[in-house]
Every structure is written in C-alpha cells, then in structure tokens.
Write a structure and sequence with these properties.
This protein is mostly helical. Helices cover 48% and strands 10% of the residues. The protein binds zinc ion. The site of zinc ion has 8 residues, from loops.
Amino acid sequence: MPAAFPDFRLGNVLATSFTGTLSERHGNPVERIPVPQRLVDWLAVSGLAVDSCTPAQLELAWELREAIHAAATAAAKHEPLPPSAVQVINDRSAQGRAAAVLTPEGKRRWQLSSASSVEDALGVIAADAISIIAGERDGRLALCASPTCQAAFFDTSQSRTRRWCDMNTCGNREKKARYYANRRETARSAQ
Ligand SMILES: [Zn+2]
C-alpha cells in the first residue's frame, strides 16, 4: 500500500465502512479513496475484489458514498430522506449484478459479473445501505459524537449506546481530550 494515501477505517458494516472512506466531513476532510486504485484496494479488503477501476467508476462510487451518507444521516435524525440520495442509491442497487454465493465452508461470498465490474460492487454496497436505512437489520443508525466527524454509523452494541463511529479514532481522541482536560483541572486545583 503506498504510504502516500491515508489508511482505511474498516468497520463491520459494509455501507458505513464505505461512507467512512471520507472522514472528518465537518473538520478537515480526509479522502481515503482519492484515486481509482485506492477504491480497488478498498473493495479488495471489503470482499468485493475487482481488477480495475476507471476514473468514471470512481466518480460513481463517490456519488453513491455521499448519497448513502446523506440518507443515513437523515434516517439517524428521523428526518425525511433526501429524494436525490434515494435515487442514486436505487440506481446503483438496480444496476449491480452481483450474486450471493455460498462457499463450501458455509460462508456468503459475492460473485461479480466480471472482474472489472465496479458497478456490481457498488450495487452490493447500495443494497447493504438500503437494508440498514430501511431498519431491516438489528441495530440503530446514529451519528458520531465527534463534532468534526458526525459520521453516520450502525450501532450493533447490546445497549445501543455507542457514541463514536470508530473507537480507535474518534472515540480515542475524545477520551484523550477529556483526560488532558481533567489533568489541567487537577493541576489547577492543586495550586
Ligand atoms: Zn467519528
């Protein structure tokens, strides 16, 4: 992996892992799939390996990503879904021709119609987003508590009280900020 590109932040939910390829949307945004090859890399680690990606396919991916982000954010806030976002998600879902196949080990794998079909991979991601936004899956859509992030994430914790999209980044930063604030407070009261 070229060191010049930011790492991925992979969660266990496909659609919100995908929206997480752009992070810090309300701060200094970090684009984690800035070039077609990085989308190829992301798809490979997400079980949707493709051989290649064109700049136009990357554009489609970005468009889908922001549509999922907009629709999931609205759903998390219990607001009406933006029609344009719904349209993009539905178009990508309808255009994909991936097939779910069962491996001999009893696992589900996605089989794309051809090795260059980024559209098929995007169809799988769109369908994943639909199942979350439609409330079909066990979990709760929520927004990250970090003010610079506010990413929509899918909370599958038992208590449904997760606050951050990602414990290792947003959660950790918040914990550290609190720790230092407390230390400053302690130092002041000791004077
Ligand atoms: Zn976050």
